[in-house]
Amino acid sequence: MNNDYNKTDMHMKKVLKYLIFALIGLAIIGTFVYLFKRSQPKEATYETLTPTVMDIRKTTIVTGKIQPRDEVNIKPQISGIISELYKEAGQTVKESEIIAKVKVIPDMSSLSSAQSRVRLAELNLKQAKTNYDREKALYDQKLVSADEYDKILQAYNQSKEELASAKESLEIIRDGVSSANKSGSSTLIRSTISGLILDIPVKVGNSVINSNTFNDGTTIATVANMDDLIFDGSIDETEVGRLSVGMPVKITIGALQDVSFDAALEYIAPKATESNGTNQFEIKASVKVPSDITIRSGYSANAEIVLQQVDQVLSIPESAITFEGDSTFVYVQSPGGYEKKAVRTGISDGIHIEITEGLTAGDKIRGNMIITTPGK
What we know:
The chain is an alpha+beta fold. 28% of the residues lie in helices and 40% in strands. It has four domains: 1-39; 47-56 and 310-372, conserved putative lor/sdh protein from methanococcus maripaludis s2 fold (Beta Barrel), CATH 2.40.420.20; 61-69 and 225-309, Efflux pump adaptor protein, beta barrel domain (Elongation Factor Tu (Ef-tu), domain 3); 74-223, Helix Hairpins, CATH 1.10.287. The longest helix is centred in the N-terminal third of the chain and has 38 residues, at 2-39.
């Protein structure tokens, strides 16, 4: 019985060995067939294209920003310390509306001079009053002429006016406002235009100075009319020659998805500025924004400008054009294959190109190459 069992085991081992050899042989044959197919030459065919009639526009994209046409920095007329702020950024303000109040810190030299002027005016008025009282008593007794009396009266009135003026000057230097003109106080910082407050860069307690020969002064607030916006960007010198004032512009803003605005080119800089080694010309376009859309100053934007446009012209994909020096060619389908044919082109939008001469709407031309493997 053991002999039968051994014979069966040996037979199974032989079968397993033949099976392994067979699998290895199949793997080798499969690899060979795969490599053979891969080494076979591939056939090249071309797609067939037909010229189409369409509109072609050559455009350029200019990057820039949206900003208000009128943006004003509100500055104080006097130096001092911010004591109150009545507005904040994002609020609207009307012309002459108060934005802030300044507490005056007077210049000691000017204050001392003003005080001295008041004291001198008081002395002059006291003397003028004495002279007037004496002259009037003589005039009432008809001991002096009317002319003499009028001179003394005039001097007395001038002394009173000088004292009032000296006191007003002292109040302005000391308090920033006179009691006779509180409505025109220079301590009250008012907006010079109506619009939106874009920024208030100061806080209560900050020192501020007025604009003078030596500095620009402290900006209390920046106010702009957000109903009148412009696009401000720069265009390369290679394209600026094709621009003209009044050209339509399409504005898109990155922060606003799927929204575009119409604009009109209104300014082209007469002088270039160098940027990254290239000459750039500033351009500006007035933007028409619908009333239901909110635009913030400083939004990055792109302006699409149509440099050239032709309507309903014969065109083909630019990839079908073959360039040889200054000449252009296409391959036109014929009974014997494709024949090389010279054509004359017009403007291109980067994808399609205008054909002005050499093709008709019924021609079939060679397009892009299509690679196929035999047997597939």
